[in-house]
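dumping this here before i forget
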Amino acid sequence: MKGKLTEPRVITDYRGEPVCILPTGFYLSDERWQAIWQRFGEKDAALSHEDLRELFPDEPVLIPRNRE
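structure:
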């Protein structure tokens, strides 16, 4: 499951509860997969977009677009 996502992906836990929603264009690697699950375990709740931005500050698809 490595590479750039071509569509949004909902990650769920074993109960089918949401862990996070990854946007189209997000680059997913084994290291990022592990970081997502580690943060989910620490938070014990679904990760928000802000949580993902904190985990992956250099990920371009997580940077807010300027609205003018």
